[in-house]
Design a protein that fits this description.
Among the domains are: 212 residues, Immunoglobulin-like, CATH 2.60.40.1730; 137 residues. By secondary structure, it is of the alpha+beta class. Pfam families: TAF2_3rd (PF25316), TPR_TAF2_C (PF25577). Belongs to the TAF2 family.
Length: 1189
Amino acid sequence: MPADAQWSAQGFTCGHQKVYVDLNYAEQSFEGWTELSIVPLTASLSSASLHCFQSEITDCQVNGQGADWLHGNTLKSSTRIANSTAHQHDQLRQKFGIFNRSINACDLHIRFPEGVRVTSQQEDYSTASRETRNDGAAEDNDDAEGKRGLGPATPALANLNQGGPGKVHYKPITVKLWFKGSAPCLGMRFVDCDAGQAYPHVYTSNNPVPCSTSMWLPCLDGWWERSTWELAVCVPKSLGDIFKRKGVMDTNEDGNEEGDETSRDQIPFTVVSSADLIDETASPDDPSCKIISFAQSSPTGAAHIGFAAGPFIKANLAEYSDGEEHLSTNAGAETFGYCLPDHVAEMKSTCYVMHRAMQFFVRDFGSYPYTSYKICFVQDMEVDGVHLASLTLCSSRLLYSERMIDPIYSVTRQLAFLLASQWVGVNTVPRLWSDIWLTMGLAHYMTGLFLRSLMGNNDYRFRLKEAAMKVTEQDIGRPPISSRDWDLPIDERQLAFIALKAPVVLHLLEQRLTKVGGNLGLMRVLPKIFLQSMSGGLVNGQLGTNHFLRQCEKVSHSKLEDFARQWIFGFGYPRFSVVQRFNKKKMVVEMGIRQLQFADDGRQPLDEGRFIDQAYKSLTKPPQPPVEAVFTGPMTIRLHEADGTPYEHVVDIKEQFTKLDIPYNNKYRRRARTKAKKAKLADGEDEEATTDNINCLGDGLQSEQDVVQYKLQDWTKEDELKMSSEAFEWLRMDSEFEWICTMSVGQPDYMFQSQLQQDRDVVAQYDAVRYFASAKPSFLVSTILFRTLMDERYYYGIRMLAADALSRAAVSELDMRGEFHLLMAFKARFCFTESEQFVPLDNDFCNFANYFVRCAIIRALCNVRVDGAATAAVRMFMLTQLKYNDNFNNAFDDSHYVSTLLQALTDVLIHRNLELAGNPLEQADFAEDFQASLAELDKWQRLDRWMPSFQNVTTQTVLSCKEQLMRANLLQRSLKEFLFFTQEDHYALVRLQAFKCLMGLAALREASIVRFLFFTMKHDESAYVRARLSEIVQYGFGCLALHARSGDGNDNAVDALIFEEDASEAVALRREREMRSTLSGAMTALRQELSWDSTLKQQLWSVANGCTHLNPLIRRNMLDVCKILYEPVASRILKFTLPSMKARLRARHLGNGRVVINKVRPLEKYQKKAPVKIKLKLFNSAAKRKSLM
């Protein structure tokens, strides 16, 4: 059913809603009332149904009269099965249907009293004179509500019943509900509200989607039912007033009352809401509290209504901008930031560009849909951020100081995306679930354009190309981005692939539009759509894919059916293989383009983190339709001829094989540099040569001294003769980046070198480096990549790719030339040149590009291997960098850099081919390096305890490193070391990393750890830990499924390296590994190993079925595991209460003073009757059972 028709089928809409909520921090509870102005759509309306999944309803009135209501408490009663086991997982999954957007999801049903009837507006006009007599009473009611922070009802109902002539308009009906809740697990979060905590605060979680607001507020939840709002929140006046409501004063260790006036206790409480601030008054019931009132005049769905209340510090983000940007006349809406008192400095550095982002979006996409924008940082959020109307709630994990480098880009992109979601995602919402790709993709597309203005076009195109390559790796057997197949509630992991592919598809669409319809493209379409949403042109702000495509067709004056079928409603991508040759007789370049789609069998590569999701989809999802036989569309081919002039040719791909002739326009030969000219250029002697040759990137290090010092090698004379005889410099396919594809172009290495050095497009350089990374290693390839790495004129992402590609040239046949070039590049930039042991200079990260290249070289050296083992030179290099790392004079933090070194040191200790590894500890040099590495790991772990790094990232890395060493049988397996870091007094990310290490070490086989793990998942105070822990448990099952059980289970991992087995055992082990390499085989192995484990089965079912207070996403994650491990059972055990079978004495009065006493058995009268038959409807087949799910 379309979203805009769902509630019309119920017979009413909501025009306006008032909310009053009183927050009790000491008891972690809330209570309040809400008043809904319901607009009937039919005269026969006699009841109303609302969403209310967690709060308790205490009273109900309809038009001021008491009304009957029925509250099903669906979340607790209908989402668990009594007397069941894990084999009933299919039956429990059916009960999770309450989270879909059907009318049956409502569990609060209100029946109107007899005195309430639906009247039309015409009848209302006839009684207007009588209503005016009661104005005094109405004013009294308004005054009473005004004391609670809400003014008289002013619902925006004018447009709700607009229609054609003759349509009946009905008078709104007022439904008022009183509700309360205690220690809510969903919808509202009380954080640090126990006595002695630093900064207690409360916020609405608005997660998961849908049905998040209805977890604490009776309403019509979701995106599509919109209304105006009034909100009043009662909170303590200051931090010191929290516990005064209980009448108990906190005492410190000395016994003195902490109720005295202190600077901390005087911090005022602030409420940040999705609505606009109206008033702040004292509470008439409690002098220690205040009521803060808000109003939302723009119709907004309940899913985008929320608030945060706590001792927040407010800051105007315009003041953080550079220079006088905040004084610009086109500054857009005001932007404010809120955070707890101990995060003010971090908020300044984190939100540094937010006001600039607001200016950019307002300038390019139209007016901001609300009056102001607020961003509030809170603690213990399950996700990084949620967008509400004019408000973004973000996790404090996103905050970073001005000394940090690594989080800058990722956090800035996340915050800019949340701001862009105000235009598309909040004010403009998807019309159907299948349109989520559009709102997410447009928000990410807008974010990318802003980052392009911030960081440059090279950065934008490079990251877009990287995203396209990731799509080619992941778009195997996945559903289309416009898919109706959603598992509700929505998990953010379900949206990860859409967030990756959708903006790339929109970029392709932009290229199609600008190629056909001009230079504006989507920049002309999006402002029109946003204007339609703000002006009411889109019904309830709902944007559908078809409407969006029609707007694009109007701009380009072309049809987009093929594009939509292939990239939006289809899946997969093409693979192109291009061959070419120059026909000197015809003076044309003959070219053949072949398109392939059928190389893959549709199976995704198995991964521990996604194994449960892959296995569940293989059991439940229908087979995908075949991939498009031929992807069609225009492709731009750019031919750089001999004089360097580029000529573009557009070919329309319509068939699987396309043959074409490209005319040649130049009669000159290809210009190539000889060694003599290069030497003269390096010495600056031949000025004529500089004018005759093109200025190239990557042409440094040409002197004889550089050639000898860095062992460089250039083209031979034979190669140069061949190069000079070529008709063109290089050939560039898809030069406008109009395709998501893989491209294999048949041209010589020197043409790719010309493309790398002379083409200024970063995408062309990206393709060239990828070619050299996959080409056969040679001295020449290593030289080209080394010069690219050393040339700072390249975009730093290209230099990082070149460093990674150099590791593939580190082979014994080339005397490890790639390793030599990587070490020399690091030494030339970051070490003392006189040192032979690569002693580093003091850290100086002021040049961010060099910092990222430095980390890339370190990661690339980890891939330098000889028969699977790292070289001794690389191991010593890593130890030297850690030993002599000095960050004392550096203006920036080195936490992530040290973590990179620690991870790299661990990588070089682990053999890539364990079957050939033997026992490396028997080698003296390796044993010495291994002990020195362990000492470094312990040293940095102790330092992080004394001087904590950013988010304890060093401790997280050390734990991960030790877990990898244990899995590689280099370190004794010890679960106790990780259990210590799972305790609640450690940072949340450290705890989660420790749990993940336990899962990687197959701790799910230990019954005691299984009980502790699931106890933490059920009862931990941190909602974020509980949510992430369920994902880590799925990762643990993936590790068990994909890796065979090694050893006999003892903890002496080093002894396990000595294998003494016969041929049959080796064959059996090899067969098991082959079986686990496939999805079906891994599932079978997992069932065989764990299906009998009663402890694991009981704990899994206790979370999935028994813990109704947990986030439904956590329970569903455990249901997915049950689906894979246990066969479904359609039957259930039913328990009936029967009379006692024990005989009793019964006395009967016969009259006249006579009493008869008999011994009677309770079921004696039923013994002669036929047994009672109970008819149960069971599933006849598995197919029918699936159809009913």
